[in-house]
Amino acid sequence: MEKALKQDEIDALFEAARSTVPEEARSEIKARVVPYNFSSAGQISNEQLRAISMLNDLFARNLTHNLAAWLRTRFQVNLVSAEQIPFNEFLLRIPEISYVASVRLDPLGALSVLQLDLAIAPPIIDLLLGGEGKDGPLRELTDIEESILGSVVEIICRELTLAWQPVGLSFSFERRQMQTQVARIMAVTEKTLCLSFEIRMPHCSGLLNLAFPAVVANTILRRLTTDWGRSRRHAAETSARIESAARGIHFGCSLQLPTVSLRASEIENLRPGSVLRLNLAGNVSPLWRVGGETLALASAVRQGPHRAARIELPVTDAAPGAAKELTS
């Protein structure tokens, strides 16, 4: 006859199992638990960041060579960062005295924001007017100076178009925007893709910032990720090793009844001993789910001392529409 454990013996076994974990390890596990921040959802992955960096490094090199040749002076552009931030956070980064312009992206017809530090404006304007590119005080531009700087922004947009040909976008300089008008270009809560470039000249340095709306950012990331994934090829030996390692990955499995809908009042009124009607027929087979996906109809069985599931019918072999009906 099998020995039946009493409740105090069962409690002692569980307590002994818990005591095998050192107190330091339990405190370390608790310390790693942090609240989830929903605003971090949809952040740029490492693969997307590499693709964006490659594309914009090309833009930075082309702009360095072309503007250096046009201005006939040392002109260096480097990609500093690529991140997703709300548009209102981008607005807070714009200095009080700055050059901000709207740039149209075709064929999407969306507007992006280009911001250029005015610290590099005086040397550029001085060079284009025949000077030596000396630094000047930080101030607002005159109409003539704004027109000259607008030609530089048009060159930046042209180089952006050439560098971003893989994603099929064309950049067109629209017009300069006043600080009070920038917030109207897109919703302040919209998550934007922000690219920051550092510009260095012999006598000054500054930042060039670009902010793309969510619709453009999603299009860019999707196309870049697709092209990046297609360009990567693993050797046969590497692929075999990855596949072998992947076959050893553990997935959580469960055998459960199909999903049913219950009124909130039924759940609220539950008491010990209550009977909850699931409105399921007695011959309904449980679902075998792996990693949250329904794979087959199964029956609960016992295999020696263990519980098990016997596969009755894969969901793909069920009647048309059965898979959707079972999981909905």
| Helical coverage, percent range | 25-40%
Query: Can you count the helices?
Result: 11
Number of domains: 2
The number of strands is: 10
Portion of residues in beta strands equals: 25-35%
Distance between the termini: 46 Å
Biggest sheet architecture: 6 strands, antiparallel
CATH class of the largest domain: Alpha Beta
The sequence of SSEs as H and E is HHHEHEEHHEHEEHHEHEEEH
Strand order of the largest sheet: 1-5-6-3-2-4
Within CATH, the superfamily of the largest domain carries the name: CheC-like
The pLDDT mean sits at 79
What does it look like?
The chain contains 11 helices and 10 strands. By secondary structure, it is an alpha+beta fold. The chain has a 6-stranded antiparallel sheet. It has a 4-stranded antiparallel sheet with strand order 7-8-9-10. The chain is elongated, with a radius of gyration of 31 Å. The model is unreliable at 319-328 (pLDDT under 50).
SSE order and pairing:
Elements: H1 7-19, H2 23-31, H3 46-71, E1 76-86, H4 87-93, E2 98-106, E3 110-117, H5 121-128, H6 143-163, E4 170-176, H7 179-182, E5 191-201, E6 204-212, H8 214-231, H9 236-246, E7 253-256, H10 264-268, E8 287-290, E9 293-303, E10 306-314, H11 322-327
Antiparallel strand pairs: 1-5, 2-3, 2-4, 3-6, 5-6, 7-8, 8-9, 9-10
